[in-house]
Structure formats: structure tokens, C-alpha cells
Amino acid sequence: MIILRKLANRPLVKLLVAMIVALALAATSRGAEWTNLRIGDPFPRIRLPDMAGNPVTIPDDVRGKVAIVHFWAVGCSSCRDEMPAFESLLDKYRKRGLVVIAVNVGQRKNDIQSFLKALKIMYPVLLDTDGKAAIRYEVTAVPKTFILDRDGVIRNKIVGEATGELLQKLVLNLL
User: Fold this and answer.
1) Which CATH number is 123's domain given?
2) Which of 17, 79, 94, 160 is close enough to 72 for a disulfide, judged by CB 3.0 to 4.6 Å?
3) Assign residue 84 a region: left if phi > 0, alpha if psi is -120 to 50, beta otherwise?
């Protein structure tokens, strides 16, 4: 019982439990509108603040670009490995129309800032503090990455970690 109490107080465990409960509630109360995102579907519209508090609307604000939308959390080792690969891709293909947006799920801004600074991440990070975007995009675990075409249509979904090589291949097919 003591071990369970200690685990329950860990931020990542709290986040995962909250996401699972919220996803279950959303699935029962919202119906098909909130579930079953498939390749070829338009990316559902949502508005989130960036780290400076400015609102960003996806997919509207990335229309005309190939977009990588990456859901992540501090403490996710796969996210720590992937995020520099996104930065590298962006450096190579920004001029051809690539954008990267990272969506942090349910964590404190101070923790996020330290993480980003350590990894030297410069692309936009949005804050999903209440986890509603994660629910809408069926993020039951992180990392989860969507690759959108220039019209805001989902062309790839990656659940779990992806290599830089795979990401490059998927992005190049759309640029």
C-alpha cells in the first residue's frame, strides 16, 4: 500500500491516470466526434496557448505547411530522444515548408522550460494543461506524433518513439 501511495504521487503517473479517466469519459459522453482519428482524416481543430501565452490554432495556423504535431511529457525518455530529431529535421526542411509543434500534456511550465533548455529545443511548444487536447487526439500515452499534409489532413500517426530516419522519410514524402 505504501508503494502504491508513492507511485500515485508521481507527476507522470498522475498524468497518465488523468488521461485514461478523461479519455474514457470523453468516449462515453462525446461519441464518435472525439474518437477514431484515421489516416486521411482532417486534423481536428483545437486552440492552445504557446509558452508565451499566445494562442495557436491547429490546423489553421499551419495550413500550407507540412506539420509534425508531437504530444509529449517531461519524464518521457522516448520524448527526450525524439525531440532533438525534430529540431534537426526542422533545420533541414524549414525552407521547404516544414513546421514542428510540440504539445506538452498536463505539466507545469517551469518543468517544461527546464527540459526544453537542456535539449536546446527552439520550435513552438503548446500547453495542454488540462489534457483536453490529448483526449481529443486520442493520446493515451506519450509520445504520439501526427504528420499533417499542407491541407491539415493526417497522413501519418506514430504511437511511441520514431527514429530520425523514419521521420525524415515520412516528411519528405509530403514536402
Assistant:
1) 3.40.30.10
2) 79
3) alpha
